[in-house]
Amino acid sequence: MVYVKSLLRRADNFMYIVKKNAGARKALLVDLVNEENYQDLAEKENIDITAVLTTHHHYDHCGGNEGFRRQFPNVPIFGGDDRVPAMNKPVKHGDEAELADLKVRCLSTPCHTSGHICYYVTDPSNESEIPVVFTGDTLFIAGCGRFFEGTAKQMDVALNRVLKTLPDDTAVYPGHEYTLANLKFASYVEPRNPDVAAKLKWATEQRENGAFTVPSTIFDEKATNPFMRVIESEAIQKKVETNDPIVGMEKLREMKNNF
Fold first, then answer.
1. Looking at the domain that runs over 3-257, which CATH code has it been given?
2. Res. 128: pLDDT tops 90
3. Nearest partner of 39 among 82, 72, 62, 80, judged by Cα
């Protein structure tokens, strides 16, 4: 699998270091949460930072961009929204780039913000390697982001037409450590789902031991994420009183907001 190191920032934000393998020097950074000394980070991690991938313009995902630009004026910062600070590589859906000996494909997933981008990363030299996707605040483990700048229809497209169609083994790295709260909600709306119960037990143990719950996989999300299961789950349909995926998505989000 493409090598990913998860770094927790603030209370529950993730920043990621991404490399072709554990021993590689060339690296990408995903979502610079804080102003910090990225030169020190590069030295500590023994990496050469070749690009920054920003999922969206909210400060807790790009608060370090301007400081990074001052420290690394020649390293490109990618993003899909003009509001992303210090961005100099604007991207749109389907754009691809070769970065740090990896292939990065940009997936537009507007809803949480109108310019939200997820990044699907593969190793072009080894097609058997497990791919990874960085989903920011679109797809969380067993959840999704709030609809700040979009609609239920947009989130349904993002989750169930874009991300859901990625290979099942794709490793999912979201922007926050929200897993326990999301799985508790998933258990509420689909109480007899054994996959949800098992993952909730596992996630509880992980957090009690001070470990992260990332990554998930697309396969796991299809089995446990209620926002990706309106069509499949009669229990969820009963809870939201509809089998319409858009109406169901909207009702689930409203329920989660007040859960």
1. 3.60.15.10
2. no
3. 72
